[in-house]
Amino acid sequence: MAHVRYDAVTKRFGDVTAVRELTLEIADGEFVVLVGPSGSGKTTALRLLAGLEVLSDGEIRVGDRVVNRVAPRDRDIAMVFQDYALYPQMTVYQNLAFALKMRKMPRAEIEQRVQRAAEMLGIGELLQRKPRALSGGQRQRVALGRALVREPKAFLMDEPLSNLDAKLRVQTRSEIKHLQQQVGTTTVYVTHDQVEAMTMGDRVAVMNEGVLEQVGDTRTVYEHPTNTFVAGFIGSPAMSFATLGARRDGVEVTVSRGDLSLTLPGTAFPEGVPAEITIGVRPEHAHLWHDGSGLVGPIDGRVRFVEMLGREALLGVSTDDETRFTVFVDADSPARLGDPVRVGIEPGRTYLFDPHTTQAIGTA
Amino acid sequence: MDPGPQVATRAAALGSLRRRPERLPGEARRIGYLYVAPAFILYAAFNLLPLFQGINISFYNWDGITPGTWVGLDNYTEFFTDPTILAGYTHVLILMIFYAFLPIVIGLFLAALISRIRIRGLTVFRILLFLPLVITDVVTAVAWTWVYDINGPISTALRAIGLGRLVPAQGWLGDFNTALPAVGVFGLWGGFGFCLILFLAGVMKIPASLYEAARVDGANAIREFFAVTLPGLRYELQVVLVLSVIGTLDTFDEIYVMTGGGPGTATSVPAYLVWRRLFQTGQVGSAAALGIVLMLIIFAVTWAINRAMERGNEA
Amino acid sequence: MVAPPARVRIALAVVAVALVGAACTPGGSVTQATAPPKPAVTGVPDTGPITLTVWDQETGQVSKIWDQLNAEFEAKYPNVTIKRVNRDFGELKSLLRLAISSPNGPDVVEANQGWPDMGALVKGGLLLPLNNYADAYGWTNRVSQNVLAVSSWSPDGKNFGTGNLYGYTTMGEIIGVYYNKQMLSDLGLELPTTLPEFEQDLEAAKQAGQVPIQFANGDAFPGIHEYAIVQDQLASTDYLTSLIFGTQRDQLSFDTPENVQAAATLQDWANKGYFTPGFGGAGYDSAVADFGKGQGLFMITGNWIVANLGASSTDFGFFLLPPQQQGGPAVSTGGAGFPLSIAAGTEHADAAAAYIDWMTSDHASDLLLNTGQIPLHTGASTAALQQGTLLADVVNATATATADNGVVPYEDWATPTFYDTMTAAIQELMANRISPEEFTTRIQSDYSDFQSSRT
Amino acid sequence: MNTTASRAQVAFNYALLTLCSIIAIYPLIGVALASLYPPGPDSAPSGFGLPPTFAWHNYVTAWEQGKFATSFTTSLIVAFVMVPASVLLSILGGYAFATMRFWGSTVLFYLFILGLIIPTEATIVPLYYDVRAMGLLDTYWALIILEVSGEVAFGIFWMRAAFLSAPPSLLEAARIDGSSSWTTLWRIMVPFAKPAILTLTVLTFADSWNEFFLALVFTVNKFTAPAGLASFSGRYTTDIALVSAGAVIVAIPILIVFIIFQREFMRGMLTGAVKG
Q1: With an 8 Å Cβ cutoff, is D190 touching chain B?
Q2: Domains of chain C, with CATH numbers?
Q3: pTM across the whole model
Q4: pLDDT confidence band for C259 (50 / 70 / 90)
């Protein structure tokens, strides 16, 4: 296995820069997920690693070899495509064996590797079938098998689950994760689904418009987003934001806009209090204001929408000057559309961001 | 008409000219030259180079044997002085009514009549209606030489219903007035089946919802035809128009077999003139010029049709 | 001016190269064929197996005789095998230009005389001059000068009727009027001695509901013969001969009152319905078959259909179209038949010459005689011919025409495009689409174009 | 969409289609019947009655008189060499244009498209003298080379469209699996485009078998079937039965191919016509 390194990698298509100055280190055996909205350059970054696209500048290393000029087949990497890319006219066995045959591997070893991979993926009895005779899930597994038999230095997966139905997707996620841990191959996994990213990745790299916004383990990225983009992207339903004016009140700081005002501990502002501040609240950290028991607030507003999610309900609340929050309440809460409601935030759970640089300042 | 499968699908390709080929995909690989080389060498040596040689020869007065003498554009100015050349082009324009215009009109009319119900056994009809286009032109020409015979089916039928005097004494292909239209009808017979099937296939592709919407808006059959069917067949129309026009312009087989350009020069067409001047009368320079002008006309016509259809799309 | 992008510049360069590559004068250089030396001894040199490819356009009975003669020749010279390629008149005309210079082209070929075919081939140096062989085999003194003249050309192919001999035949052709003896007597008519009398016979036949002249012009060539022999009676033979040979270049014109009158006569006959109805589209072979079955009083064509009607037949007779006035000279179109020539590219010139000598020998002409081919060579055994038969009529008619020096060459020899121009013009003339005056002016423009282009 | 269709409408459709089909095949059936009339100029079949006696012998005489043995061999030899060659070159060229970018590839591709519009008449005059200079006149090779060089333009266009319809990931998977462009072509792309290749083969065969103008110009003894028929019908204009037999003989091969590969023909001419 090998570690993979992007070093200030940039890719331009004409005058569009798909990937800008990407620097990312993926340790040997690690499972890193590239996540971001469509057009964020995550797929391009993966294709650059695969050699399907040529770098504009920067360096990519697999193991300790610079592979910029190396053809895909010589990079010893295996890729699983979104549409599986199974060779339609070949049987499952031939599909699995194809890459090994290309490497002129002795027949016995090919046979042995294919059988082992088939067992690991439970597709032993499908070996003589043609792809069009398989279900989506089975095809997906064959695509995985094709990567497995290669025993490559790295797995590259381009949204492999996006064509599966929801239930199968959840089940396959854990299978892939388990499989990867079993063989321990370094893996770069691309997805636009942040839930998938959080559940599968040892580490998550969030990309936006060709730039790597943040990389870190799932907890850090969720708990300590470096800017409003990562904060808004990771976590579902997304964090609500509001930009308020701020002024110091002795040891505390009051942030307000219109008749909405909150008092936050001064300690949260080590480098002084800026004139304006953007605060972010995750729905699970906002609660209805029963008796002010230890919540920051209150915030008064009206219910804009109610989304029943089974055990819980999600309330959309907007204050008089249109600042909007989403709040989780338990399903049987009486709040109905248009009712006035009072909300509070768990202390230390309000995220603070600089409105101009969108960089995180801290929590309060 | 030489509407063999070759021309049929050739014109199909031209139809796509109006769309610029999207940026060619694929990896940048110089090995591409190796793959294209064999085809290109053959194609260039026997299509492109001769094209330039042809242009060169067309500036000479040459009998094909002794060295030619340079005459500049005489072979081209001859187009306006030599009556047989003018006749050749007027004939081919007249033939265009039979080979291009009529089959399309009839094909459209019939396709519109046959409303959109799934027709079981369509394949049998498709085979039969395609036969005239697929069978070798020389064979169908020989067949029609018999059809037009003095006591062939057409003459006998007319005599049977008492219209015997309509049958020209010289025979349909021997009479100055009927020879060209007779060849025209042969082309119409060759083309109408293909047009009908093409338009039927096109109509089948028009989403049913359009027809239902038109019906709901109270459109009668005529309005429905012009509002839904015709626009829906825009692409097929363009392709079959290009196909039949090119097919007419380089007609040769049936003229050689059925009339030999006769009677007199009543059915001579450019392609036949090229053959005759190259082989029979040794006017090689003029034959080359005729060929070049025929190509230019085909370019112009194809471009014009694509352009007209293109503007039609935007309108 | 901003330099055009690399791609455009490269493309222009490629086009320029191609144009330059193609910009040489077409036709390259032509070397005039040199006459092979006079062979020490005649006959086929015994130098191992020889294959002689022979191209001919004979049909029917004559074609069978050719097979017989070829077999006899192969028997006589066991080392020779004859590969015979038989094509009809029109096809051979076009294929010859193509094949004569190709590697597996013919050795001996039956090329039509005149500017369009033999003239073009001589100009291209594609036929061998036969003078030396003529001396060796004594061909020149077996036939009259004018028979040789029609196959003679200046080495550069610019002058017709003089210079080297490029083709040789001893058989002749003549165009005249076949008549159905039974029908003639039924109608109470005698053989016409003047053109007006002939026209009265036509009218009489018409009145009697018979087809005056059996005729079919679907194949285009018959029309030329109908016009030619009418023209022969009106225009002078010398004028016609030098017009066709082109000896006086553009001093002579086709647009003469006599030619106009000949056209008017032909058109008049057509309008009066003297020809078989529907002649425009019908085939020549079916017309000959119908005439043989007794349809039609007269049929104007050449001696090559004698075999079809039966050489010894007494039901059909043959006479030359009578002159304008009583006692005028007997004139008609005809002369030497298709000559045999030797392709310049042959490797077996001597063997080819021996073959030509064999095909034009007395033995050959005796066999061909009863197919209606007329022996032109001296010493032909026409004396043994049984008088009163069709063949005798044809031979006698040719003899009288030759005696009156009234044999006019074929008109389509006059220019490379004459065949096309005349056949089309005659079809339109007889279908009343152009007037006799337009007919002659159109043909004259073709004639003058060619004469002025002759450098 | 079978809702409001009345029985009359369905009946009307069938009637109309049957009428058109009859018109389309009548001349062919007529000529087939005419070929069974007794030979000779006066047998003149009028095209309505059945022949008095079934003169099957006409086909034997026609086969011999028309020398169809030689012309059939020519056509078959030319087809059996030309079709695979043309299809192979088209596959190679089409593959390159569909999956590779090389400098000038767009210009080259347009140059081929140009070939679709150049009529044979524009190049036949110099070609005749070039072929003669090469000493290829009246040889199978003349026909083979010229037909291939003519067909390749369309073939490349056709195969490029077929390969472009393959999902790009297929190619990329192959590149990653280490397959060379050659293996990718033959192990992956060609199997994928098999239907299109079959269609191209059928259409190319039809063009080769129906070729007349090139045969007329470039061959003397080695006539193709159509050229043989034209020469045969030229010589025996009066004998309709015999000529008709010749016509049927020449029609049979292309008829068989069409019936067997009817679907390919349709796809070639219809979707080709529409997809473009």
Answers
A1: no
A2: 50-172+337-375 (3.40.190.10), 173-334+393-453 (3.40.190.10)
A3: 0.82
A4: very high
